[in-house]
Amino acid sequence: MTNTYITNATWALTGEKIDLRMGHGDEPVSIYRNGIALPGINQVTPAGEMQVPAGARTIDATGKILMPALFDLHTTISIDGHSKRECIYRAGQAANRGGVWGMLVMPSSGFIFDNTATLDSFDEAVSQRSFATMVPAGCITEGMKGEQQAPYNTLAARGVTILSDSGNMPASLLMLHRAMKYAAEMDLTFAIRGDVPCLSRNTYMHPSSTSYILGLHGTPPCAEEIGIETIIRLAKDAGVSLHVQTVSTAEGVEIIRRAKAAGMKGLTAEVALHHLLYTHEDVGDYNTTFKTTPPLRERTDCEALLAGVKDGTIDCIVTDHTPCLPFAKKQDFVSAPQGMVGLDTFLPALYTHLVKPGKLNWADVVRACSSAPVKIVNPYDREEDVPVVAPLLLFAPEEQQVVTCESLCCGTTNNPMLNSTLYGGVTLPINR
Amino acid sequence: MNPRKDLITINSLSDEDIHTILQSTSAMKDIFTKSVKKVPALKGKSVLTLFYEPSTRTRSSFEVAAHRLSADVTTFTVSTSSVVKGESVHDTIDTLMSMKMDYIIVRHKNSGIPAVIARHCKAAVINAGDGSHAHPSQAFLDAFTIKEKYGEVAGRRVVIIGDILHSRVARSTSTILRRLGAEVAYMGPGPLVPPQQHTGIPRFTNWNQIFEWKPDVIYLLRVQNERIDTPFFPSADYHAAFGVTEERLRRIDDLNLSIMHPGPVNRGVEICDAAMNYRNCLINNQVENGIAARMSILYHLTPQTQSHD
């Protein structure tokens, strides 16, 4: 039977079989059965029972999956040799290609979100140039220098809900503890990566057979684990919400699992997609694309992280999208900047490497990449005075694409999927 | 055999490469005994030494080797170059390639730099030591020295003692010796010896274990203080715990073991004075063989700057 989905009287979806994947179970669900409110969809009817309104565009969605678009909780918009506006434009375009409707933008050297002027100019550029919703994360410290707290009250009044020094752990725990206590009154969430900077200083990859062969100093997993334990205890004591960024070790997952089991409120965590897929062995012969912070670790860590996603210990999967100038990544491994880009390929990569092989189901993906991050960020449209909700996208699982430099919109090529084939074509918004 | 442009690591070489270079090292060494210590093998070729790290031994060894093959040698002095003004390695190499160099001999504190340079230029690039990664010419001179002493490398046992973590010598020399059929073990202060699961090489923590293992060669490394920001171990312990003391030297003598060291030596730290004059101390042989091995390496490589005229 052909279903027809009508929204807004501007478009209509038709098809023999349309999968609805709204994150409430792995089985396709219908609106009738579960009474789920689909954002933007007014009616679902069998074909023939509802007339497609005059002027509405009909989209054939046969064999496609209808699902909420993704929200990336960890994006950096680097100023990679282009203007700020251009970088925002490219990130938005890349996000759209990868099925991402919105993202939390980390402060970075180009965008130091510790004052309203920077936030205003960023928002203006986004509204003019971006295909995607971009929510800035405010700085924890002024200039991300780790010394003096940023003006949280001012930032919160301006709509900031998440504070982060782009993952970096402030060196002074006393300053951080006081910052958390101050921010706890304002319903702000701290987003921090677990780290002990003095243990990870001058290290370049996971300590392993690869680091030995390449003569590169290893980042001990305990640096991350002690860091996670530390920020959890600080946040608990201060009574503030904490989002643990880019967990990379099995023990890190276990620490978060224990804290959640002990009933800690306001604790969430994320894993970068690359930490689920790659290991230190992918660094190979100094492949700088695979230089990341935290580093790519062992296969057992990937498995523990995936198990953490499955059981909800890890709330979100993020891209940790970090554009790097091609020139910069062509340097030697020690000098090259860390980071990968992943917005362009996010949903096809999730599908190809996790859903298709049966490691995650669609419900996991919708939860970890759409509903959970939206809940953490709680984006708000200040002009319309309403919470922003995820739009829908159509995903064609049979389509294939070879990732090439030309096919990447983000402007840089430090994408680990480069030259590989990914399954899935994204249409976002669905009436594009 | 396919012509090889660069020498970056021992791992990148075929067995045939290794055997050919070792064989011709012997032929090169024969030249030293002649009254004219020079052959025209690289006449008209340009060799550049590009050392981003201080070095006396390796650099002069390469320079002597290049001179004995009749090449023209240019020395690029980093401390007075625009590198200290922030120029990137790529830009430096572009500049140097405009000078049409045939061979670039490079040393850098960062692991992986010679490979970047090799990809970027047509000259034959020889890694003269990069960070903690590789030092292949040292590996060849070490293998040759052991071969010269024992006739064969295969079947010998070599224990490398000291700062393995930071040592490109330990990595390259252990690799070539194992490729040639020797057994290698590591020993040193705990934090400076990576676990066996990472290295694939047995890891000892004291001299008793070493003597029980019955090695043929004791290979000492220098503690590289310049690579250590925060101490790895109490330095006052080193000589007594890990060095060749006079007492250990007597045992080494009894067992007729050889001592090797890549230099420079820190007397009183990894090695006592007396050991420097020990009858089986091969340190000076290593220096002499270094020139022959480097001549052989230069001779073996084929820059892509050569036209077939």
Describe this structure in words.
The complex is a heterodimer of chains A (432) and B (309). With 432 residues, chain A is an alpha/beta fold. Chain A is 32% helix and 20% strand. Chain A has 2 domains: 4-63, no CATH class; 68-387, TIM Barrel, CATH 3.20.20. Chain A has 14 helices and 18 strands. The longest helix of chain A is centred in the middle third of the chain and has 18 residues, at 221-238. Mean pLDDT of chain A is 89; it is low at 25-37. The model of chain B has no long low-confidence stretch (mean pLDDT 93). With 309 residues, chain B is α/β, with parallel strands linked by helices. In chain B, strand 5, helix 6 and strand 6 form a beta-alpha-beta unit. At the A-B interface, helix 7 of A face helix 4 and helix 7 of B.
Structural descriptors:
heterodimer, A: 432 residues, alpha/beta, TIM Barrel, 2 domains, five-stranded parallel beta sheet, four-stranded mixed beta sheet, globular, B: 309 residues, four-stranded parallel beta sheet, 14% strand
Short structural description:
Chain A is of the alpha/beta class and 432 residues long.
Secondary-structure blueprint:
The complex is a heterodimer of chains A (about 425) and B (about 300).
Chain A: E1 3-7, E2 11-15, E3 19-20, H1 31-34, E4 43-46, E5 57-60, E6 65-68, E7 70-75, H2 84-97, E8 100-105, H3 116-129, E9 133-136, H4 152-157, E10 162-167, H5 173-184, E11 189-193, H6 197-200, H7 209-214, H8 221-238, E12 241-245, H9 250-261, E13 267-272, H10 273-277, H11 299-310, E14 316-318, H12 326-329, H13 346-355, H14 362-377, E15 380-381, E16 386-387, E17 392-402, E18 421-427
Parallel strand pairs in A: 2-5, 3-6, 7-8, 8-9, 10-11, 11-12, 12-13, 13-14
Antiparallel strand pairs in A: 1-2, 1-4, 6-17, 15-16, 17-18
Chain B: H1 15-31, E1 46-51, H2 57-68, E2 72-77, H3 89-98, E3 103-108, H4 113-120, E4 124-130, H5 136-150, E5 157-161, H6 168-179, E6 183-187, H7 196-199, E7 203-204, H8 207-213, E8 217-220, H9 238-242, H10 246-254, E9 258-260, H11 273-276, H12 283-300
Parallel strand pairs in B: 1-2, 1-3, 3-4, 5-6, 5-8, 6-7, 8-9
Helix pairs in contact in B: 1-5, 1-12, 2-12, 3-4, 5-6, 5-12
